Amino acid sequence: MTTHTMTPRQIRRAAEREARKAGNKQPQPPLAAAATPSPAESSESAAPTPAAEPQPTTSTISEAQLAANRANAQHSTGPTTTAGKEKSSQNRTFHGLAGSFRLLFWEDADQFKQLVSSLYDEHKPVNDSERRLVDSMAQHFWLMQRAITLQDKMLATAELDHKTFGLYLRYQTTNERAYYRAKREFETGRKEQSKQQNGFESQKRQQEAHEAKIRLTNARAQAAEIENEVKSTMEAPLPGHIRVPFEDLAAAFRLTLQNLNKELAAELTKRPPPRPRHNPTAYASTRTAPKRLNQHPGCAPQ
Fold it and tell me: Is 210 part of any domain?
């Protein structure tokens, strides 16, 4: 024969039933006997009496029931660990898509940290404003994925609550828009910083170009002064002569050079042609071999 072991809950329920039974078995107090009124009292009772005010009724509880309730309350102190308290604090949290951001008990905290780390590595914020925008992007992206997960769970069930499903869909759209809004604000801030930096560099380049233009203008002015000084020196009249323009002097120099070239060419044509150089091999080929004496015409040379 197997014996049944009662759980702590069953033991508490049994104690409560026993306490209720003990309270019901207590004897009730006897009712007071109705006294016969005297003639004077009967005449007074004929006069109307004011209605008595209703007295508040208090439920009486036995000592055993009170002890059982107190013992039962000691077993209902709630969770004692940190994880249990955090989980019980979300008993009324159905989706967590509204209010302040927090992770639900069935979500992976390491996965959320990985998401934040990836966004930080991608955007590389450099100040507090950019860091807040990156954190906002991570939170809204996480809430958007949570809304999608809740929709998938609802579609997997047999019963579909269209009102709740529409609520999840609206939260998905809201967080998606908030994510892209934070991303646009981040990119706009980066563009403004880039414009300011590029504007400073452009202003610096313009200043350098202006200085280079000034140096070029000064160099041209110096070259023009040197050219004018040369012209004035060459065009200066000699004592007892008239002033000769620079163009006429240049034409005279050009004509003089042409005449010199012609004279050199005429001298080269009058000179005799140079003698050919001695070539021993050519001279040896033109010589004939010496004839031998006392040689018969029909005999071959030995």
Answer: yes
